[in-house]
Amino acid sequence: MHKLFIIIGAVSGAVSVILGAFGAHALQDTLTATGRMETYETAVKYQMYHSLALILLGIMMAQFDHKFMQFSGYSFLMGIIIFSGSLYLLCATGITKLGAITPIGGIFLIAAWILLAIGVGKSL
Predict the structure, then answer these.
(1) By CB atoms within 10 Å of each CB, which of 4, 48, 95, 106 scores lowest?
(2) Which positions, given as ranges, span the membrane (predicted)?
């Protein structure tokens, strides 16, 4: 399972770089005109931060083996998809109601960090 989270984190990190470059170059005029550049940058940053967290989690799972570590990994993944994904969609479509979904992703990300702490604590 730990290898899966490392792979997902690496792929997500690569996608984050691709989307960041795409936003900075191909979408820059559109994002600036709609006032969504900051929103897009937030999506890219959070995706990258939590992609790195997934990689670190995968590495840590070799030492700290507990089911909460797996729960943390899945929560990081759901958080990335819902948080960053909803922001990307909001920027691409202009549908502001998508912003209502973003906090759900944030809750998954918060839960992932808490589950990580619990998982390490329980495996000691």
Answers:
(1) 95
(2) 47-64, 76-95, 101-121
- Record the tokens describing residue 61, joined without a space: 């799972």
φ, ψ dihedrals at 30, nearest 5°: -65, -45
d(CA 20, CA 27): 10
Tokens for 15? 């996608």
Question: Do residues 2 and 58 touch, judged by C-beta distance below 8 A?
Answer: yes
Reported as a single tens digit per residue, the pLDDT across 69-119 is 999 999 999 999 999 999 999 999 999 999 999 999 999 999 999 999 999
Query: Residue 87: in which H helix or E strand, if any?
Result: helix 85-93
Domain locations in the chain as residue ranges: 2-123
Take residue 105 and report the two structure tokens written for it: 């992703």
